[in-house]
């Protein structure tokens, strides 16, 4: 309302000024100057708006992902630890975690016996992994930032981010708490869907092979995000994840 009144009075003032000075002033030149004064800011504004609009579209476009949460594929374990803190051996961390749960159970019970066997099997598995791996090869975890990395030939080949409650971290505009439908809407036919081989129908993975990203879903909600090279991701089929029936 106020702006309308101001503009109306402004144009009325210009018309009055023109009628009073049209014989004395060079109004043709003045109109040209006024035209540039008015249109130049508008043109600049449109250019800026157009640039921001195109940038927002570019940002929404899926991209090949080679790093996440401060970790880059191809980095050494020492470089990652230098930036983010010490990573523990994943097998050792799981054993310690399950041992803590074991120690809280009452001895001489079936539950205690089952958990004891589980911890024993984990220790045996760790020893077998040590024999298979060379140097620092293996899986490592930094629990405080919920990152798991896989090291092969002293290089990061796999980054796994574990979501938590009220966590909306994302990759290519899909992230924690996203649904399978949202992934399909975003990537359409670029998604490979795999199901759990142990017949757990509540779990699936949605692979965007072109961009090197795997989304792990439980009950149709993203609970972890994996970053790796497209060729490596393509090989992540079989064993635990198979084509859905």
Topology (SSEs and partners):
Elements lengths: L1 H20 L5 H34 L6 E2 L2 E2 L4 H8 L3 E2 H14 L6 H23 L5 E5 L4 E6 L2 E8 L7 E2 L2 E2 L4 H8 L3 E6 L6 E6 L4 E6 L2 E8 L1 H5 L6 E3 L2
Antiparallel strand pairs: 1-2, 3-4, 4-5, 5-6, 6-12, 7-8, 9-10, 9-13, 10-11, 11-12
Helix pairs in contact: 4-5
The strands making up the biggest β-sheet line up spatially as: 3-4-5-6-12-11-10-9-13
Strand element count: 13
Helix content: 40-55%
Counting H and I runs of at least 4 residues, what is the number of helices?
Answer: 7
Which outline best applies? elongated
What pattern of helices and strands is seen along the backbone? HHEEHEHHEEEEEHEEEEHE
Strand content: 15-25%
Count of structural domains: 2
Structural class: alpha+beta
Report how far apart the termini are. 64 Å
Uncertain runs: none
Calculate the mean pLDDT score and round it. Answer: 83
Overall radius of gyration = 31 Å
| Largest sheet data | 9 strands, antiparallel
Provide structural commentary:
With 245 residues, this protein is of the alpha+beta class. The protein folds into two domains: 65-157, no CATH class; 163-245, no CATH class. The chain is 46% helix and 24% strand. The strands form three sheets. Strands 3-4-5-6-12-11-10-9-13 form a nine-stranded antiparallel sheet. Strand 9 (191-196) and strand 10 (203-208) form a beta hairpin. The longest helix is centred in the N-terminal third of the chain and has 34 residues, at 27-60. The chain is elongated and about 110 Å long. The N and C termini lie far apart (64 Å). The mean pLDDT is 83.
């Amino acid at each position: 309302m106020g702006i309308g009144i101001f503009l109306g009075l402004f144009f009325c003032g210009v018309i009055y000024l023109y009628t009073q000075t049209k014989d004395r002033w060079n109004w043709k030149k003045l109109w040209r100057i006024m035209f540039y004064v008015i249109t130049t800011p508008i043109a600049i504004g449109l250019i800026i708006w157009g640039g921001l609009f195109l940038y927002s579209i570019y940002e929404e476009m899926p991209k090949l992902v080679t790093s996440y949460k401060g970790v880059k594929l191809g980095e050494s374990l020492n470089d990652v630890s230098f930036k983010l803190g010490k990573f523990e051996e994943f097998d050792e961390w799981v054993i310690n975690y399950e041992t803590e749960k074991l120690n809280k159970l009452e001895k001489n019970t079936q539950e205690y016996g089952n958990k004891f066997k589980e911890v024993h099997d984990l220790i045996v598995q760790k020893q077998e992994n040590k024999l298979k791996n060379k140097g620092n090869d293996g899986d490592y975890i930094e629990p405080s930032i919920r990152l798991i990395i896989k090291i092969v030939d002293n290089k990061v080949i796999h980054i796994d981010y574990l979501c938590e409650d009220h966590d909306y971290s994302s990759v290519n505009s899909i992230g924690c708490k996203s649904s399978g439908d949202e992934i399909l809407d975003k990537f359409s036919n670029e998604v490979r869907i795999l199901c759990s081989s142990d017949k757990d129908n509540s779990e699936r993975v949605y692979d965007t092979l072109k961009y090197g990203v795997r989304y792990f879903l439980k009950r149709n909600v993203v609970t972890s995000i994996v970053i790796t090279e497209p060729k490596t991701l393509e090989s992540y089929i079989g064993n635990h994840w198979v084509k859905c029936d």
